[in-house]
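Box 3.1 A note on notation
Throughout this textbook, protein chains are presented in two layers. The first layer is the amino acid sequence; the second is a token string describing backbone geometry. Keep the layers aligned when reading.
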Amino acid sequence: MECIYGPLAKELPDGFAPPEMWPEYGHLVDPAAICKREAISSDPMGIRWSLWPLTFEEYVGDTVPDVVQASTGALAYSRLAVWYRVRNNNSVAPGGWWQWSKQTYRIDGYQILSFHEHITAHWNKNARRELRLWQERHMGTTHAVIELSLEKYTEAYKKSLISKRQGNDRLYALQRRLRLPEVAAHTTLWGVVNRHNGAVVAGTAIIYSPTYKSSTHFAPFILKEARPIFAATALIHHWFAESLRKGMPKIITTNFWHQGKPKSWKGFSEFKSHFGFTYVAYPPTLYRFVGGKFF
């Protein structure tokens, strides 16, 4: 498969894992809040959720899931298991699993920051120009990047362009994550603030994984005022700098637009492509029906 943003990785680096595999990411809360859910496995990482009468379980990783061993738990009803692989080690589905499509389930971007070169070394010229203008005209004078409380983050998010266009689902997913101690301990909320009136005009959550020496951003937003001051680029730079400072050199950003995904993804995907990522298209999703208790 080709990627419209740049070359796909021929081989993923050692220690690479998508955020759903990180214990610090809180993937267990991703199913809709109305669902009951439980963790079921760690190799590969697995979760199960149920909205009666339907039950699903999901695995992320390259080890073949042991669905028999996983057939315990409060929600171990008859269910559909979904397996998201990371590396395309075997193009043939293992026995009992099948795929409905040859299409990747997602394209992510990753970058491994170097302690020996500038953060912007692999950025395109437009991104470097925007950072320079932010630093020369706004950083520390009209605006600043500061750490935010969840209350301030929530208030600003609900005024943002993404809230108006797509709603607040990502914000609510962030709030659910932060109720998990393992996530809260490794997440920081950053915002670009107008120094004259204290208004938050852009923000992003950064989730760090000491387990995988990685970080990702989550539920980013901007207000209209943030565009002419290049606040989104400022936050990307801050994310990279903070990750390097914390010893988390693997940077991962998820969900680049590709065929079959919503058109609303295109603009942000194009913006993210300016920052030097290498792309990974994961293997097609595999499925399997698993028998279990009925009630």
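The chain has a mean pLDDT of 93. The helical segments are 125-137, 150-157, 161-166, 169-177, 181-184, 231-245, 266-272.
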